[in-house]
Design a protein that fits this description.
The protein is α/β, with parallel strands linked by helices.
């Protein structure tokens, strides 16, 4: 084994210690992170020639700009609330009389809504009772499902109505089936058969001398249903009037000025409300009351006094008490009869004769007209008039 000399070992140790000391000194001379950010970095030229570092002690450190104060967002001022339209109070329902007249309402789902509206309309009339007999999916086409002629006969025998109101047809846009009939909707044989059924159904009422009111169909949200309603309304009107009934047209109440279907419109009080449901077929409560509004006028006219007990009739034969004139008793005894006087009587203003009918009385003094026409003489102008050319203070002629 070869042993290294001690001198070589000592030299190696010295080199290692020198390197460690140089590293420690170099680390101590490094600037801190804050100094490195504040002072510029020195290059080799500055280190060799000893360039003086600038003094940063008196310089102010750049401060970050102040944060802007964020103003809170102002909430938009809500628009003023519109005043809510006050609906008139519904009069309390009156107790019906034992001998009250019965109005029978028959038909499909629209007739059921009409009956609800009429109950509200005649709630304050004790002499009128509304009886609604409606079948939701019925009509005059499918008599195998619901035979309306047969059902109506039994209803009239049972209820003895004073008036019958019909509203049908919303479900009749389908194939007609009956005795030897099987026709598709829209064909000529279909309309001929349906027209005959409408006439026979109306005659069941008018043949008993019962007033009949047939209510037309409103417009619908579907264009096809609306077009069918127009044709059916023409048919209902012609056949109802031909047998002595009355047709009630409600079309304008559920369309705009162009005849188009509307969902929202005016109710019976003139307020804008929703009249139809989302399906464009059924009626809301306001829509049902509006249909009854169209029927109510004709119904009250046919029923008479019991339908409107709060209206005073002036043609019942009971004259109003005569108003006594404020005259002395002796003068009142002399008055027996005062003849009527015409406001256009010519004797009132003395105009019984035409102008020139009686000759004017003769006069010897010539008039200013005669002097001007015959002799050319004009009467002097009155003093102070614009054509008075006389000097002030001159003697009058």
């Amino acid at each position: 084994m070869i042993k290294r000399p001690a001198r070589a070992t000592m030299a190696t140790a010295r080199l290692i210690l020198t390197a460690l000391l140089a590293a420690i000194v170099a680390l101590g001379c490094l600037p801190t992170a804050a100094e490195a950010q504040e002072r510029p970095r020195r290059n080799l030229f500055d280190m060799l020639f000893g360039t003086r570092e600038p003094d940063y002690t008196d310089q102010s450190v750049d401060q970050p700009p102040p944060r802007r104060k964020i103003q809170p967002r102002k909430r938009p001022t809500p628009p003023p609330r519109q005043p809510v339209a006050v609906q008139p109070e519904t009069p309390p329902a009156a107790e019906k009389l034992p001998d009250a007249k019965t109005i029978l309402v028959v038909g499909d789902f629209l007739a059921s809504g009409l009956g609800t509206g009429l109950e509200d309309a005649f709630s304050a009339s004790p002499g009128v009772v509304i009886q609604t007999r409606g079948n939701v999916a019925s009509g005059l086409v499918r008599q195998d499902y619901y035979n309306w002629p047969q059902q109506l006969t039994g209803m009239m025998d049972q209820l003895k109505p004073t008036m019958v109101i019909v509203m049908l047809g919303a479900n009749d846009r389908q194939q007609i089936i009956g005795d030897g009939l099987n026709e598709k909707y829209g064909t000529d044989p279909w309309f001929l058969a349906y027209e005959e059924r409408v006439q026979q159904f109306a005659k069941l009422v008018t043949s008993r001398h019962i007033p009949l009111l047939w209510v037309g169909l409103p417009s619908f949200g579907s264009d096809q249903l609306t077009a069918s309603a127009v044709k059916l309304n023409q048919l209902y009107q012609s056949q109802t009037t031909s047998v002595g009934g009355e047709f009630i047209d409600i079309w304008d109440g559920f369309t705009d000025q162009n005849g188009e279907f509307i969902v929202t419109g005016s109710d019976i009080n003139g307020q804008q409300v929703r009249l139809r449901t989302a399906d464009g077929v059924n009626l809301t409560a306001a829509g049902k009351r509006k249909v009854a509004f169209y029927v109510e006028k004709s119904a009250r006219r046919l029923l008479g006094d019991q339908a409107s007990p709060d209206i005073t009739r002036l043609d019942t034969g009971n004259p109003l008490p005569a108003q006594q004139a404020n005259l002395p008793p002796t003068e009142m005894e002399k008055i027996t009869r005062i003849p009527p006087m015409s406001l256009s009587d010519p004797d009132l203003d003395g105009g019984a004769q035409l102008l020139g009918g009686t000759p004017a009385p003769a006069s010897t003094t010539p008039s200013p007209r005669d002097l001007l026409v015959e002799k050319g003489q004009m009467a002097p102008a009155p003093a102070g008039r614009v054509d008075d050319y006389r000097l002030p203070g001159s003697a009058a002629p």
